[in-house]
Specification:
With about 775 residues, the chain is an alpha/beta fold. It is about 30% helix and about 15% strand. The strands form 7 sheets. Strands 11-16-15-14-12-13 form a 6-stranded mixed sheet, with helices on both faces. Strands 4-3-2-1-10 form a 5-stranded parallel sheet. The chain has a 5-stranded mixed sheet with strand order 19-27-26-21-22. The protein is globular and about 75 Å long. It binds 1-deoxynojirimycin (NOJ).
């Protein structure tokens, strides 16, 4: 068959091959039922080794995103013992590998190509945490759509995104990759990302499979150290960490990835509770589950498996379908089946799930349909994609502080000093997990300011110091630049690789001597604008009280430089809001919006009270709270008006309030609604975000915001893991951020208990 099929053209080859395999052409099989039947026929012809091959994902040697255990993927593809490959892209390379699978392996089953397309493929958008700061669900969905379009044209079928992990610890480097700390926001964003990647039809060649990762609670690593132990109450797991995953599932996510961490003593990759009882049985997930990179193998180091064979057994029993990079299934599966430790039926079920998704992608019709050089040329980094990246980068920028309205800058002033180690740092613009993005295509902040001012402003530049060293020898250059200028723009923060995987920090201040440089720049008396690039909230208490203007620009992506210039010079009025709390000091971490009260709360009006819950050396409150973000205009809020002061079980509540643009320029506001359940049989957080709305508003205009709170919004997880609301008093608070709120109160009354007053919801609706 091998030599015969080589003589066919690709299209004919595919048709002929799959007719031989008994796999129908698309159209005949659109409903999917025929596909299932054909998969059964194919399964009947597969050896155990070939089946385990469909459960094996190996990296190519193009990229390295973890420890390398089994490098020989080419030989595996040829033998049919590797069914999926990651870290391989471009139409040409994926075609080359696919050809080996289709023409040289015994059954010619097409490969599935996966990759970490996290915030763009070639056109890089802001890091996910930055995207989240836009609170713009449409734009975030659009970013994932564009990423999928580019990735698919380069032969990719599957992205390892979105990361649905709630992150409340800024030390954890992977906080950069998610949608922040709040359940409602993260759930909405996760849903949008899944929709963007997968579109509405997986068989279209510009949609790719999404993967909800890392299941579960990876973000709750002890001490913010990556891969570390997670110990959580089941209530917190269900109330906080699972909802974004459930949102991904509800949006139709095709795959799930296990997490590296253990959860309450069980490594997630070996957790039958997570992967089978919850995900499949309770939630009804029908796609496949892939492990994180070598996480089956790592169950040995966890002290959960005796050896690799045992680890494989535990993973299969738990419900894992595909082994990423560990080769444990391939190496130990045959022995485990031979001695009856695991049953063939379980293997067959996993293989079915993988083949079904390959079929749904249309790979059995044409295994090369994604690897399209013409489409690759047309779509990759197209002007429309770059424009979308610039738009979202500008929307992601958060104006943390703007004393005396120093910003926006004039573009005709005589001299501007652009200093700091990140001002001209091209590599850092696209951040970590920047896929196949090319930082050489970025304009730096310095260049973008030069472009924007086009000779009208004299720009003097000196980095002043490195990102992370103790060397002060170049301070003088930066201070000289400042002396020459009317305003100083200091671009500071973290390097791109100080966040992301395996990039936890115990000190989340400005690294190296940047703070000292900033102080010296400030001491010159020149007004300083601080532009921060970072993958996490930074503890910058000195800057927050001394530097008049601060912009958090995250790692803003391919078009981040122009986007920063857009905001600096007022072409775009900033509208980003913080999706995470900024601490004053790392010692406050974890610090987040949805904290609870204690029995001895601190009273700000009694600062010297002794036996209360407080620190001796730092206030309890954050430096910048969740939802904070200023504009070049000002917005005033009316108190909320409620449709009723009392509602019954099952009733909805309408909330409306007015937002007035009280400044003198048009702006975009993200109005936020928070809820507090005052008394519960389980204590409730002080605030939870429940709704938000982004809208443009002209100066002097008033916009009425209307939200409806549904019964599920009042519900919470109880110790028996039911989700239900309790009668009592609730406070609705609205405002431009969680630090500035107007409130109103309503009661949920018990009603007639016999008529189901205590409505019990499935855990699912919480995550809508
Ligand atoms: C390990 C990371 O945890 C995961 O998010 C990623 O998708 C894989 N490596 C593959 O690169």
């Amino acid at each position: 068959m091998t030599s015969l099929t080589r003589t066919f053209t690709a299209g004919f080859l595919a048709a002929a091959l799959f007719t031989m395999l008994g796999i129908p052409a698309r159209g005949a099989d659109a409903g999917g039922d025929g596909l299932d039947q054909r998969i059964e026929e194919l399964l009947g012809r597969m050896t155990l080794e070939e089946k385990l091959g469909q459960m094996t994902l190996l990296t190519s040697d193009w990229d390295r995103t973890g420890p390398s255990i089994k490098p020989n993927y080419l030989e595996g593809i040829r033998k049919g013992t590797v069914g999926a490959v990651f870290n391989a892209y471009t139409a040409a390379y994926t075609r080359k590998l696919q050809k080996i699978a289709v023409e040289e392996s015994r059954l010619g089953i097409p490969l599935l190509f996966g990759y970490d397309v996290i915030h763009g493929h070639r056109t890089i958008f802001p890091i996910p945490l930055g995207e989240a700061a836009s609170f713009d669900l449409k734009a975030i969905e659009g970013s994932a759509r564009i990423a999928a379009t580019e990735a698919a044209a380069e032969g990719l079928h599957w992205t390892f995104a979105p990361m649905a992990d709630i992150a409340r610890d800024a030390r954890w480097g992977r906080i950069a990759e998610g949608a922040g700390e709040e359940v409602y926001l993260a759930s909405e964003i996760t849903r949008s990302r899944v929709r963007g990647f997968q579109g509405t039809d997986l068989s279209r060649p510009d949609t790719i499979l999404a993967c909800a990762k890392h299941f579960a609670a990876y973000g709750a690593a002890q001490a913010g150290r990556d891969y570390h132990t997670v110990d959580l109450s089941p209530m917190t797991l269900h109330q906080v960490y699972l909802p974004p995953f459930r949102a991904a599932l509800d949006a139709g996510v095709a795959t799930f990835m296990t997490a590296f961490n253990e959860l309450n003593g069980i490594p997630c990759t070996g957790s039958g509770y997570l992967l089978s009882d919850l995900l499949r049985q309770e939630w009804g997930f029908t796609g496949f589950v892939v492990t994180d990179c070598t996480s089956i193998n790592e169950m040995v180091a966890h002290g959960f498996a005796r050896d690799l064979r045992h680890a494989g057994e535990l993973a299969i029993e738990a419900g894992v379908d595909m082994d990423m990079q560990g080769s444990v299934f391939a190496d130990h599966g045959p022995g485990l089946v031979a001695d009856g430790t695991i049953e063939q039926a379980g293997i067959d079920e996993a293989v079915r799930r993988v083949l079904r998704l390959k079929g749904q992608l249309g790979l059995f019709d044409d295994p090369y349909r994604y690897s399209d050089p013409a489409r690759e040329k047309a779509v990759v980094m197209s002007p429309a994609h770059l424009a979308a990246a610039r738009d979202l980068a500008a929307k992601s920028i958060v104006l943390l502080r703007n004393e005396g309205s120093l910003l926006p800058l004039s573009d005709s002033g005589p001299t501007l000093a652009v200093v700091g180690p990140l001002a001209d740092g091209r590599r850092h613009m696209i951040g970590s997990w920047s896929g196949a993005g090319d930082f050489e295509k970025c304009r730096t902040v310095l260049e973008s300011i030069q472009d924007r001012t086009a000779g009208r402003v004299k720009i003097v530049h000196a980095p002043g110091c490195d990102i992370d060293s103790e060397d002060r020898s170049r301070f003088a250059e930066a201070l000289a630049a400042a002396a020459e200028a009317e305003v100083v723009v200091a671009v500071m923060g973290e390097s791109y690789d100080m966040s992301g995987e395996a990039a936890s920090r115990s000190d989340i201040g400005l690294p190296g001597v940047q703070l000292q440089l900033l102080r010296e720049l400030h001491a010159t008396g020149k007004p300083v604008v601080l532009v921060l690039l970072s993958g996490r909230p930074l503890a910058i208490p000195w800057a927050a009280t001394h530097v008049p203007s601060i912009l958090e620009a995250w790692f803003p992506g391919t078009m981040g430089g122009p986007a920063i210039a857009d905001v600096l010079f007022g072409d775009v009025n900033p509208s980003g809001k913080l999706p995470v709390t900024f601490p004053r000091a790392v010692g406050q971490v974890p610090i987040f919006l949805a904290v609870k009260n204690t029995g001895r709360p601190f009273h700000p009006e009694k600062p010297d009270e002794k036996y209360v819950s407080r620190y001796l050396d730092v206030p309890n409150d954050p430096l910048f709270p969740f939802g904070h973000g200023l504009s070049y205009t000002t917005f005033t809020y009316s108190p909320p008006r409620l449709s009723s002061e009392q509602i019954g079980p099952g009733d909805s509540l309408r909330v409306e309030f007015d937002v007035t643009n009280s400044g003198d320029r048009a702006g975009v506001e993200v109005a936020q609604l928070y809820l507090r359940d005052l008394v519960g049989s389980v204590t409730r957080p002080l605030l939870e975000l429940k709704r938000f709305k982004r809208f443009q508003i002209e100066p002097g205009q008033r916009h009425t915001v209307r939200f409806t709170l549904d019964p599920e919004d009042l519900a919470f997880v109880h110790p028996d893991l039911t989700l239900r609301a309790e009668p009592g008093e609730f406070r609705v608070l609205v405002g431009p951020g969680s630090g500035r709120l107007e409130g109103a109160t309503f009661r949920l009354v018990a009603g007639d208990v016999r008529r189901g007053a205590y409505q019990v919801f499935e855990l699912g609706p919480l995550h809508r």
